What does this fold into?
Amino acid sequence: EVQLVESGGGLVQPGGSRRLSCAASGFTFRIYWMSWVRQAPGEGLEWVANINQDGSEKNYADSLKGRFTISRDNAKNSLFLQMNSLRVEDTAVYYCARDGKTALASLHFWGQGTLVTVPS
Amino acid sequence: DVVMRQSPLSLPVTLGQPASISCRSSQSLVYSDGNTYLTWFHQRPGQSPRRLIYQVSNRDSGVPDRFSGSGSGTDFTLKISRVEAEDVGVYYCMEGTHYTFGQGTKLEIK
It folds into this structure.
């Protein structure tokens, strides 16, 4: 059974940093692209970033303007999202999602999400 | 940038009746490999999204056959043949090259 478990969320002051983690199990992690998707309270879904199998290719939503960095550790079946210069509008539930074996969006499986709150 | 527009945004449906959600993209979603990367998700209240349909019309494992996807180019539709109580929540379409989501359609039971 595919499992994705996010952690690392919490209350972060504006301008602060946070590192989110996603522990993957139940599938061969190293052969899939992985994504982060976020959802602000009461809002829709917004893709954040993705990363290819060996971490050599990374893509980000234009709105992030270089503040976030996605990475992975295939030896530990883990995905990460380093978030810097956090803003109030970054408040959201952050989901880790398993993508496909290509750069074309799949988002087949999702974790339960971790909430990041940046207070005003 | 691709823009995805869903309609309606709110969909009250009587149990057992059909439902239909439209998703339109600002440009063709046919990729260079000939496939069309249009995906549908369902998010129940308080839960994570769940993928229902990929590449326009392929149902994921475990998705009831009352769900069907269709369309081509820029116009796509998700249909539920007979709505059940567990179908409430928000439905999102997404295009697969830039991961652009539609605004979401909230299905509720009348």
Summary: The first strand of chain A starts at residue 3 and ends at 7. Chain A touches chain B at residues 35, 37, 44-47, 50, 61-62, 95, 104-113 (CB under 8 Å).
